[in-house]
Design goal:
globular, single chain, 284 residues, alpha+beta, seven-stranded mixed β-sheet, 32% strand
Protein backbone atom coordinates (compact mmCIF):
# COMPACT_ATOMS: atom_id res chain seq x y z
CA UNK A 1 0.00 0.00 0.00
CA UNK A 2 1.20 3.50 -0.83
CA UNK A 3 1.30 5.98 2.06
CA UNK A 4 2.13 9.68 2.30
CA UNK A 5 2.76 11.93 5.31
CA UNK A 6 0.97 15.26 5.64
CA UNK A 7 2.33 16.83 8.79
CA UNK A 8 1.31 14.52 11.62
CA UNK A 9 -1.28 12.71 9.47
CA UNK A 10 -0.97 9.74 7.16
CA UNK A 11 -2.77 9.23 3.82
CA UNK A 12 -2.99 5.70 2.41
CA UNK A 13 -4.42 4.61 -0.95
CA UNK A 14 -6.77 1.63 -0.52
CA UNK A 15 -7.13 0.16 -4.02
CA UNK A 16 -10.29 -1.77 -4.84
CA UNK A 17 -9.35 -2.51 -8.45
CA UNK A 18 -6.97 -1.45 -11.20
CA UNK A 19 -7.56 -1.91 -14.92
CA UNK A 20 -4.82 -1.68 -17.54
CA UNK A 21 -5.01 -1.57 -21.32
CA UNK A 22 -8.12 0.61 -21.58
CA UNK A 23 -8.60 2.33 -24.97
CA UNK A 24 -8.64 6.03 -24.01
CA UNK A 25 -11.82 6.81 -25.94
CA UNK A 26 -13.74 4.46 -23.62
CA UNK A 27 -13.54 7.16 -20.93
CA UNK A 28 -12.53 10.20 -23.02
CA UNK A 29 -14.60 10.22 -26.23
CA UNK A 30 -12.43 12.87 -27.91
CA UNK A 31 -9.11 11.17 -27.10
CA UNK A 32 -7.07 8.80 -29.27
CA UNK A 33 -4.11 6.53 -28.66
CA UNK A 34 -1.99 9.16 -30.44
CA UNK A 35 -2.98 11.71 -27.78
CA UNK A 36 -1.67 9.37 -25.10
CA UNK A 37 1.51 8.45 -26.97
CA UNK A 38 2.12 12.13 -27.71
CA UNK A 39 2.19 12.99 -24.01
CA UNK A 40 5.87 12.23 -23.57
CA UNK A 41 5.98 12.44 -19.78
CA UNK A 42 3.34 9.72 -19.26
CA UNK A 43 5.07 6.48 -18.28
CA UNK A 44 4.05 2.84 -17.86
CA UNK A 45 2.37 3.53 -14.52
CA UNK A 46 -0.38 5.40 -16.34
CA UNK A 47 -0.29 4.32 -20.00
CA UNK A 48 1.09 1.64 -22.31
CA UNK A 49 3.38 2.26 -25.31
CA UNK A 50 0.38 1.41 -27.50
CA UNK A 51 -1.53 4.39 -26.13
CA UNK A 52 -3.93 2.59 -23.82
CA UNK A 53 -4.48 3.87 -20.26
CA UNK A 54 -4.61 2.47 -16.73
CA UNK A 55 -7.21 3.54 -14.18
CA UNK A 56 -7.84 2.62 -10.56
CA UNK A 57 -10.82 2.64 -8.23
CA UNK A 58 -9.48 3.52 -4.81
CA UNK A 59 -10.34 5.18 -1.53
CA UNK A 60 -8.03 7.31 0.59
CA UNK A 61 -7.61 6.60 4.27
CA UNK A 62 -6.61 9.69 6.28
CA UNK A 63 -5.33 8.96 9.78
CA UNK A 64 -5.07 11.94 12.12
CA UNK A 65 -4.20 11.90 15.80
CA UNK A 66 -7.48 10.83 17.37
CA UNK A 67 -9.49 10.75 14.12
CA UNK A 68 -9.76 8.32 11.19
CA UNK A 69 -11.29 9.45 7.90
CA UNK A 70 -12.18 7.54 4.73
CA UNK A 71 -12.63 9.42 1.45
CA UNK A 72 -14.59 8.05 -1.54
CA UNK A 73 -15.23 4.41 -0.57
CA UNK A 74 -15.25 2.73 -4.00
CA UNK A 75 -17.87 0.47 -5.66
CA UNK A 76 -18.43 -2.27 -3.07
CA UNK A 77 -19.74 -5.80 -3.43
CA UNK A 78 -23.13 -6.99 -4.62
CA UNK A 79 -24.31 -3.69 -6.13
CA UNK A 80 -26.35 -3.90 -9.33
CA UNK A 81 -24.61 -1.51 -11.72
CA UNK A 82 -24.93 -0.70 -15.43
CA UNK A 83 -21.18 -0.92 -16.07
CA UNK A 84 -20.35 -4.62 -16.31
CA UNK A 85 -16.99 -4.27 -14.56
CA UNK A 86 -18.75 -2.75 -11.51
CA UNK A 87 -21.79 -5.00 -11.53
CA UNK A 88 -22.32 -7.41 -8.63
CA UNK A 89 -18.68 -7.40 -7.55
CA UNK A 90 -17.36 -9.99 -5.14
CA UNK A 91 -13.92 -8.55 -4.39
CA UNK A 92 -14.13 -8.19 -0.60
CA UNK A 93 -11.87 -5.18 -1.16
CA UNK A 94 -12.75 -3.70 2.22
CA UNK A 95 -10.38 -6.33 3.62
CA UNK A 96 -7.61 -4.10 2.29
CA UNK A 97 -8.75 -1.46 4.75
CA UNK A 98 -8.34 -4.00 7.52
CA UNK A 99 -4.92 -4.91 6.12
CA UNK A 100 -3.98 -1.25 6.59
CA UNK A 101 -4.75 -1.64 10.28
CA UNK A 102 -8.21 -0.06 10.32
CA UNK A 103 -11.55 -1.82 10.81
CA UNK A 104 -14.89 -0.35 9.69
CA UNK A 105 -15.67 0.40 13.35
CA UNK A 106 -12.54 2.58 13.55
CA UNK A 107 -13.76 5.04 10.91
CA UNK A 108 -14.94 8.33 12.44
CA UNK A 109 -15.77 10.25 9.24
CA UNK A 110 -16.64 9.24 5.67
CA UNK A 111 -16.24 11.95 3.04
CA UNK A 112 -17.64 11.78 -0.50
CA UNK A 113 -16.33 14.11 -3.20
CA UNK A 114 -19.51 13.19 -5.09
CA UNK A 115 -22.08 10.41 -5.22
CA UNK A 116 -21.25 8.35 -8.29
CA UNK A 117 -21.41 4.59 -7.72
CA UNK A 118 -17.63 4.19 -7.43
CA UNK A 119 -17.38 6.67 -4.55
CA UNK A 120 -20.03 5.40 -2.11
CA UNK A 121 -20.17 1.62 -2.42
CA UNK A 122 -18.47 0.44 0.77
CA UNK A 123 -20.84 2.62 2.81
CA UNK A 124 -23.37 -0.21 2.86
CA UNK A 125 -23.35 -4.00 2.80
CA UNK A 126 -26.05 -6.62 2.51
CA UNK A 127 -27.33 -8.18 5.68
CA UNK A 128 -30.37 -10.47 5.66
CA UNK A 129 -31.29 -9.15 2.21
CA UNK A 130 -31.15 -5.48 3.25
CA UNK A 131 -28.54 -2.78 2.74
CA UNK A 132 -27.04 -1.78 6.08
CA UNK A 133 -24.44 0.90 6.95
CA UNK A 134 -20.90 -0.43 7.15
CA UNK A 135 -19.25 2.36 9.12
CA UNK A 136 -21.62 2.51 12.04
CA UNK A 137 -19.39 4.72 14.21
CA UNK A 138 -18.85 7.31 11.47
CA UNK A 139 -20.51 10.50 10.39
CA UNK A 140 -21.02 10.52 6.61
CA UNK A 141 -20.66 13.88 4.86
CA UNK A 142 -22.83 14.71 1.84
CA UNK A 143 -22.81 17.98 -0.10
CA UNK A 144 -26.34 19.40 -0.24
CA UNK A 145 -26.52 20.13 -3.99
CA UNK A 146 -25.03 16.73 -4.78
CA UNK A 147 -27.45 14.89 -2.53
CA UNK A 148 -30.48 16.74 -3.92
CA UNK A 149 -29.49 15.86 -7.47
CA UNK A 150 -28.99 12.12 -6.91
CA UNK A 151 -32.05 11.48 -4.78
CA UNK A 152 -34.35 13.05 -7.39
CA UNK A 153 -36.55 10.45 -9.08
CA UNK A 154 -35.20 11.08 -12.58
CA UNK A 155 -31.67 10.12 -11.50
CA UNK A 156 -32.80 6.79 -10.05
CA UNK A 157 -34.31 5.10 -13.09
CA UNK A 158 -31.39 3.25 -14.69
CA UNK A 159 -29.60 2.40 -11.44
CA UNK A 160 -30.48 3.54 -7.97
CA UNK A 161 -27.21 4.30 -6.21
CA UNK A 162 -29.05 6.49 -3.74
CA UNK A 163 -31.29 3.62 -2.58
CA UNK A 164 -28.59 1.03 -1.94
CA UNK A 165 -25.61 3.16 -0.88
CA UNK A 166 -26.88 6.49 0.53
CA UNK A 167 -30.43 6.18 1.86
CA UNK A 168 -29.60 3.45 4.43
CA UNK A 169 -26.95 5.74 5.94
CA UNK A 170 -29.36 8.67 6.13
CA UNK A 171 -32.12 6.49 7.61
CA UNK A 172 -29.67 5.33 10.29
CA UNK A 173 -29.06 8.94 11.36
CA UNK A 174 -25.39 8.85 10.33
CA UNK A 175 -25.47 11.66 7.75
CA UNK A 176 -24.30 15.28 7.89
CA UNK A 177 -25.45 17.46 4.98
CA UNK A 178 -23.11 20.38 4.30
CA UNK A 179 -22.28 22.97 1.65
CA UNK A 180 -19.56 22.29 -0.93
CA UNK A 181 -17.31 24.74 0.93
CA UNK A 182 -17.20 23.35 4.44
CA UNK A 183 -14.69 23.12 7.28
CA UNK A 184 -14.52 19.52 8.49
CA UNK A 185 -12.21 20.36 11.40
CA UNK A 186 -8.71 19.16 12.23
CA UNK A 187 -7.25 20.82 9.15
CA UNK A 188 -9.67 19.19 6.71
CA UNK A 189 -11.85 21.29 4.44
CA UNK A 190 -14.11 20.75 1.46
CA UNK A 191 -14.08 23.20 -1.42
CA UNK A 192 -16.39 23.39 -4.41
CA UNK A 193 -15.16 21.87 -7.71
CA UNK A 194 -18.36 21.41 -9.77
CA UNK A 195 -18.80 20.15 -13.31
CA UNK A 196 -18.25 16.42 -13.17
CA UNK A 197 -21.37 16.44 -10.98
CA UNK A 198 -23.48 19.35 -9.69
CA UNK A 199 -22.16 19.34 -6.12
CA UNK A 200 -18.69 17.89 -6.60
CA UNK A 201 -16.20 18.94 -3.91
CA UNK A 202 -12.51 18.25 -3.34
CA UNK A 203 -10.88 17.93 0.08
CA UNK A 204 -7.73 19.65 1.31
CA UNK A 205 -5.69 18.39 4.25
CA UNK A 206 -3.46 20.91 6.05
CA UNK A 207 -1.46 19.68 9.02
CA UNK A 208 1.60 21.32 10.60
CA UNK A 209 2.17 23.45 7.52
CA UNK A 210 1.94 20.54 5.05
CA UNK A 211 -0.90 20.26 2.55
CA UNK A 212 -2.39 17.64 0.24
CA UNK A 213 -5.56 17.74 -1.86
CA UNK A 214 -7.75 14.75 -2.67
CA UNK A 215 -9.17 15.94 -5.96
CA UNK A 216 -11.99 13.48 -6.61
CA UNK A 217 -13.13 13.32 -10.23
CA UNK A 218 -12.29 16.78 -11.53
CA UNK A 219 -9.83 14.71 -13.57
CA UNK A 220 -9.57 10.96 -14.09
CA UNK A 221 -6.14 10.46 -15.66
CA UNK A 222 -2.86 12.42 -15.66
CA UNK A 223 -3.19 13.05 -19.42
CA UNK A 224 -5.81 15.66 -18.53
CA UNK A 225 -3.01 17.84 -17.15
CA UNK A 226 -1.64 18.13 -20.69
CA UNK A 227 -5.15 18.06 -22.21
CA UNK A 228 -7.54 19.70 -19.72
CA UNK A 229 -10.03 20.03 -22.55
CA UNK A 230 -10.62 16.26 -22.57
CA UNK A 231 -14.08 15.55 -21.17
CA UNK A 232 -14.71 12.33 -19.28
CA UNK A 233 -17.72 10.28 -20.34
CA UNK A 234 -19.52 10.89 -17.03
CA UNK A 235 -19.13 14.69 -16.87
CA UNK A 236 -22.47 16.29 -16.01
CA UNK A 237 -21.60 19.75 -17.42
CA UNK A 238 -18.62 19.55 -19.79
CA UNK A 239 -17.87 23.30 -20.07
CA UNK A 240 -18.09 23.71 -16.29
CA UNK A 241 -15.89 20.67 -15.72
CA UNK A 242 -13.26 22.09 -18.09
CA UNK A 243 -13.37 25.48 -16.37
CA UNK A 244 -13.01 23.85 -12.95
CA UNK A 245 -10.15 21.64 -14.12
CA UNK A 246 -8.21 24.51 -15.67
CA UNK A 247 -8.61 26.70 -12.59
CA UNK A 248 -7.61 23.83 -10.30
CA UNK A 249 -4.51 22.95 -12.32
CA UNK A 250 -3.41 26.57 -12.45
CA UNK A 251 -3.94 27.19 -8.74
CA UNK A 252 -2.18 24.08 -7.51
CA UNK A 253 0.63 24.35 -10.02
CA UNK A 254 1.44 27.76 -8.51
CA UNK A 255 0.96 26.49 -4.97
CA UNK A 256 3.11 23.37 -5.43
CA UNK A 257 0.73 21.33 -3.28
CA UNK A 258 0.64 17.52 -3.74
CA UNK A 259 -2.55 16.22 -5.35
CA UNK A 260 -4.12 12.78 -4.97
CA UNK A 261 -5.89 11.70 -8.15
CA UNK A 262 -8.67 9.36 -7.15
CA UNK A 263 -8.50 7.26 -10.34
CA UNK A 264 -4.77 7.61 -11.01
CA UNK A 265 -3.29 4.11 -11.11
CA UNK A 266 -0.10 2.94 -9.41
CA UNK A 267 1.22 6.36 -8.35
CA UNK A 268 -1.81 8.52 -7.49
CA UNK A 269 -0.10 11.38 -5.63
CA UNK A 270 2.05 14.01 -7.30
CA UNK A 271 2.54 17.66 -8.12
CA UNK A 272 1.38 19.75 -11.04
CA UNK A 273 4.15 21.43 -13.02
CA UNK A 274 3.90 23.96 -15.84
CA UNK A 275 4.74 22.43 -19.22
CA UNK A 276 4.85 24.48 -22.43
CA UNK A 277 1.66 26.42 -21.92
CA UNK A 278 -0.19 23.62 -20.18
CA UNK A 279 0.67 21.25 -17.28
CA UNK A 280 2.09 17.84 -16.43
CA UNK A 281 1.65 15.55 -13.45
CA UNK A 282 4.85 14.54 -11.64
CA UNK A 283 4.38 11.57 -9.32
CA UNK A 284 5.73 11.78 -5.79
Amino acid sequence: MLTWKVGDSTVTAIVEARTDGIPPQFFFPDATADDIRGCGWLDERYASPEGNISLAVQAFLVELPGRTVLVDPCVGDGKQRMLPFWNNLDLHAIKKLVAAGVTPADIDLVVHTHLHADHVGWDTHQEDGEWKPTFTSARHVYVDDELDYWRAAEQRVAEDVYADSVEPVIDAGLADIVSADHDLGDGLRLFSTPGHTPGHASMEIERAGDRLVISGDIWHHPVQAARPDLAEIGDWDVPMARETRNAFLDEYCRAGVPIAGTHFANAPVGRIDADRGTWRFVAE
